[in-house]
Amino acid sequence: MSIVRVEGLRKSLGPRQILRGIDAQVNEGETIAIVGPSGGGKSTFLRCLNGLTCFDAGSVGIAGFTLEPGTPPGAPQLRHLRACVAMVFQSFNLFPHLTALQNVSLGPLHVRRQSADAVRERALALLTRVGLGDRGDARPAQLSGGQQQRVAIARALAMDPRVLLLDEPTSALDPEMRGEVLAVLRDLARSGMTMLVVTHEMAFARAAASRVWIFDDGRLVEDGPATEVCDTPRSERGRALFAPG
Amino acid sequence: MLLLLALAAAGALTRIEKQGELRWAGDLQGGEPYVYRDPADPARLEGFEVEIAQGLASRLGVRPRFVQNDWSNLLPSLARGDFDVALNGIEDTPAVRAQASITRPYFTFSEQLVVRRGFPLRTLAALRGHRVGTLASSLAHAILRTTPGIEVVLYGGQEEPYRDLALGRTDAVLLDSLIAARYGLTNPALELADPDVARGTYVAAVRKGEDDLRDALDRAFFDMDARGELAAIFTKYRLPPQPSGPRETVAEPTARFDLAQAALFLRGAGVTLLVSVVAMALAVPLGLLLALARIYGGRTARICAHAYVELFRGTPVLLQLYLLYYGLAPIVHFDALTAAILGLGMNYGAYEAEVHRAALGAIPPGQAEAAAALALTRWQQLRLVLLPQALRTALPAMTNDLISLLKDSSLVSVITVVELTKQMTITAVDVRSWALPGLACAALYFAMSYPLARLAARLEARLGLPELPGALQEAAA
User: Fold this and answer.
1) Coil, helix or strand for B17?
2) Does A74 contact chain B (CB < 8 Å)?
3) Based on the domain organization, do B228 and B364 belong to the same domain?
């Protein structure tokens, strides 16, 4: 059963076409790795899915909501959608004035309006799940990049999202910190969370994703099971990306 | 220097003959009838003192030359040697005698009590417990201060005391007959209650030690008086008749910088602190509102907020205070303290708006995106994510503004609020010294601003994000 369905998605910035008509769908529980060269439209596509970027034509159906072209990113109706579709950013975007625990608790407290005790307990559990159960009182500035991104993932999970969007979650990290974040993501994928991950980590895509999408120049040029796309890419772009050596 | 010494030794008269002119000083701001610019020809000076100066100079065989000088600083400037004689409604008081050598009086006036028409209290003694307006550092001020139970309201200009009296902000005005005739009794709503509360005289002042000049001026005055020239000048400028008959002139009480003065200083500091802190408490939310309107508002809100900021930043706060207190008086009747707080608050609101706007603009856009992606409402994004970060960024600038406001608040003395600086000026004139009151004033300002700065620094540290590279490495390891 598809939880994300995108049809004819188009987006231009001035004269530049960023997305040239994307058709795609995601089934519940799938992990999609979106790969491809920079400037191919991957991140823009992801941001269209929760309305952070508005698109010009086509339609997006996600978690039971439908997004119309031209909906401004501040539109109030987007809140219902965003309560079910969480996002993790490349640069973490943790709130620097709040502790890790407060970052994770903010959504459930103020959007879900759950009781403070329940929220705290759940937030601690989530921090423990990402391996930071003992850093709840730390401010973001006191955490390493990898730790910050893990807090950000816990913050996204705290909303009990039906879909998790991750925009290059490891690109801002030093190589030695990527492993800890990817481990969390692999764990999430196994647990059945529906995820769309824009990434440059080909090994991660091959090992953890159910399907791999290749974006090139605003088009979805390849869509198939991870092993198939990674081992025997059909598109030229895919062969360039997954060329051995 | 040697030349100056030589000239001084040769006497003031010789010096004046050498320079060929008698440099006399007054303040054009005092206006009619003393010395003012001819409205038809602003290059020409008019006023009874201009004609007296002409009469004096011609008797010394030189030309008169006018030197503009702020009235309250006439005597210090005279002592500095900026001019030869101060001739501008200077009252014969012990304070003046202490600082300069004075001529014989050339004009006698009475201090007159003016009230609203039909007002029942018609003597100073009866006005106990009421508000009485006058000019700061005048003879009338000295009289009022020694009359027990009267609440003195001090002004900087001659017109404002009568305007506030008509508006009911005060119950009487005590000023000399020249000012009363020209600015007070011209208002049909006001009338004379006591025409002769006390008497005073105008004298000209020369530097101490220049007795030869003083004697020459005395002879000149005597001659002008004897020939009826003085009387003719006074008639020409429609000065009120000089009171005749015996009446003791008041001796200004000699004040000392004692405990009572110190208490007044503390009171002034209290007013300064109250005005500044409350005005700032008004300015910060107002500025925040303006900044939010400029960033998130619709077209109209943006334009209005922008116009407000430019208007209030671009015009003098002094003018705004005047407009609020006097200009709006027919419509809204603020008391002086309220007008002071409102005026400064509204003015500083414009500055705070820019501080908040800059602070909000400095937040990385990812913060708002992350907040929006969490499904927070616009207002929650602001309240929970953006404003706490912006306020922290804005805190040093706001502290700076508060300390600046603490000192700018001295401007509110133009609308009769006696705060620390005004109290210092009053005391300095009373005790005839600027040193001790000035020092006390500076010490009190510092005693207020320094703890504020410390408090802000501590707040900053508490709100601050601890930048601990050590902790970061430890965490990374």
Assistant:
1) helix
2) yes
3) no
Do B307 and B455 belong together in one domain? yes
Local mean pLDDT, 10-residue blocks, chain B (477 residues): 53 89 90 86 90 95 93 86 92 85 92 94 91 87 86 87 92 92 92 90 93 94 93 91 70 68 90 96 96 93 96 94 88 89 96 96 95 94 94 91 92 88 82 83 93 87 56 39
CA distance A55 to B434: 72
Contact A143 B475 (CB under 8 A): yes
Strand-strand pairing, B21-26 and B63-68: parallel
Chain A CB contacts of B375 below 8 Å: 79-80, 82-83, 107, 111, 159
Alpha-helix residue ranges (DSSP H) falling in A50-201: 78-82, 100-110, 116-129, 145-157, 175-190
**B46 occurs within a structural domain:** yes
Q: Is A79 on the interface with B (CB under 8 A)?
A: yes
Cα gap B291→B89, rounded to integer Å:
50
Residues B403 and B289 in one domain: yes
Q: Do A147 and B369 touch (CB under 8 A)?
A: no
Which residue of chain A has the CA closest to B469? A142
CA distances from B37 to B107, B230, B239 (A): 22, 21, 18
Q: How far is B472 from chain A (nearest CA, A)?
A: 5
B322 CA to chain A: closest CA distance, Å?
43
Q: Beta partners for A62?
A: A4, A65
CATH of the domain at B418: 1.10.3720.10
The answer as to whether B263 is a domain residue is yes
Same domain? For B52 and B170 the reply is no
ipTM of the complex: 0.94
**A77 and B CB contact within 8 Å:** no
Give residue-wise pLDDT tens across range B275-286: 999 999 999 999
Domain that holds residue B27: 12-88+206-236
Which B positions 413-432 lie with beta carbon below 8 A of chain A? none
Q: Which of B389, B468, B475 minimises the CB distance to A97?
A: B389
Among B369, B374, B467, most A C-beta atoms within 10 A, so best to mutate, is B374
Residue B153 maps to which CATH number?
3.40.190.10
Domain total in chain B: 3
The answer on B83 and B111 residing in a single domain is no
Among A43, A44, A54, A79, the strongest candidate for a mutation testing the B interface, having the largest count of B CBs within 10 A, is A79
Residue B100 lies in a domain: no
Residue B333 inside a domain? The answer is yes
B140 & B43 share domain: no
**Alpha-carbon span A148 to A142, nearest angstrom:** 9
- Residues of A with CB below 8 A from B467's CB? 141
- Print burial letters for B246-282: b (CB count within 10 Å at least 16), e (below 16): eeeebebeebebeeebeebbeebbebbbbbbbbbbeb
Domains and CATH numbers, chain A: 1-84+165-245 (3.40.50.300), 95-160 (no CATH)
- Chain B contact set for A76 (CB, 8 A): 377-378
Verify that B145 and B68 share a domain, yes or no: no
CB B187 within 8 A of CB B162: yes
